Amino acid sequence: MTIDYLQKILTARVYDVAIETPLELAPTLSERMDNQIYFKREDMQSVFSFKLRGAYNKMANLTPAQIKRGVICASAGNHAQGVALSASRLGCRAVIVMPTTTPPVKIEAVKARGGEVVLFGDSYTDAYQHALTLEKKLKLTFVHPFDDPDVIAGQGTIAMEILRQHSGPIHAIFVAIGGGGLIAGIGAYVKAVRPEIKVIGVQTTDSDAMARSLKTGRRVTLTDVGLFSDGTAVKLVGEETFRLARQYVDDIIVVDTDAVCAAIKDVFQDTRSILEPAGALAVAGAKEYVERARLAKKPIRNETLVTIACGANMNFDRLGFVAERAEVGEAREAVFAVTIPEERGSFRRFCELIGPRSVTEFNYRISNEKEAHVFVGIQIANRSEPDRITKNFEKHGFKTLDLTHDELAKLHIRHLVGGKSPLAHDELLYRFEFPERPGALMRFLDSMAPNWNISLFHYRNQGSDVGRILVGLQVPKKEMKSFRAFLSTLGYRYWDESDNPVYKLFL
Question: Any residues with CB less than 8 A from the CB of 428 and at least 6 apart, and which?
Fold first, then answer.
């Protein structure tokens, strides 16, 4: 049976619970991208996600008998909140099966709306299989998060609003893909009304089931999925959503975690709102689309690009990770491992090579008598700069490894550089604080006496107005008077950590 999605979308019952969200121009990002970038602010729905549209449209079309028995769904969180809110509005029971990996903020939000939460499995697919078992056992009606015509039609109302809100030319609409319900609804409406507009899906490198399925011409099941973008962590896309994607989707762009983190930051800078990873996927995709065209020497300029900001259920404790990785994702930070000869003056010589660039991180520990290894993060202006920096270090005799795209280095090694060293005799350990501004680190190093060897150094610039340094200095006992005089004239706050038990245990 052929489904008339245009009619289903035009008659969808979503506005009992959903609002028509604004389509906002992102001025800062637009200027940087040389295009007009718009955010469709679905994060402003009452459940902070678009998912209530499809959930309510499905449930509003159930029979009175089905409503009386209640509903069940499987969800990583946002669909769950939509079902719970819809059930509350319609006065029916709602059992929600969620993966055990679901962020607590989403679990608590579902419970707050009256949903009965059951935690099962590590992914949406695991939760989905368990929900099907419970559906039969409890005689409930299953509300699918994406593979259902009524759900797809509900999500398609977003496209209806976009085309009504922006009557001028639109080059492309970028849509995050998990199971495919959102892009299926948007694609069906856009291609029926304005077929010249490109519909482009966006997925993460570790949850790209739709991209792989479209490439092979059949639905592909992933063995596992990445959990950072939990809202799109789907192993197998829907049958109907796959059919519609084959028909209506023009392209799929795949982005990594760093690009998503950078997109979260971009949205925050323009809106002061914080999207969840899945919510920022479309923005990351639009940026990659423009960058890809630039590299292919077919630049896209002065076009209108619409991105669906589809969710904002972000766990607060993820923000530190997002902030750290955003700099790399935006090509604003490069990370290097540099080997320097263990000789007087080589550390300072290396720092001079960095020049006026802002240092984002500096880890160093004296290791052996011949050479030392430095882990350094440097602020950059563009993607080609790391290669130039590497060549410059190498030219001056410092063996260099570019770690900018090394996951192990970015996740773990940067926090583990160090260890005990038999060469660290006469070592004093001090913490310093100083006003953070470009060049402040070099001014700090210049203030030190040249005859005190630096045996340990850690510095991390996280965008605050205060710089914090941990430094080990080898000061002979006969020079302690001069060292105390240096501290008194430095003008920075400092703490002596030489007797700290943690230092003695690990360093």
Answer: 472, 473, 474, 475, 483, 496, 498
Dig out the tokens for 328 from the structure. 């790399």
Tell me the two tokens of residue 232.
Answer: 């799109």
SS3 482: helix
Q: Please tell me the distance from the alpha carbon of residue 395 to that of residue 274, in angstroms, as a whole number.
A: 43
58: left (phi over 0), alpha (psi -120 to 50) or beta: alpha
* Model confidence pLDDT, tens digit, residues 434-477: 766 666 666 777 776 667 888 888 776 655 556 778 888 888 88
CA distance 459 to 410: 15
| Alpha-carbon torsion (302, 305, 311, 315), positive or negative | negative
In the structure encoding, which two tokens stand for residue 309, read together?
Answer: 């900001």
Crossing angle (nearest 10°) for helices 346-354 and 385-395: 150
SS (H, E, C) 394-435: HHCCCEEEECCCCHHHHHCHHHCCCCCCCCCCCEEEEEEEEE
Q: Could you tell me the pTM of the whole model?
A: 0.78
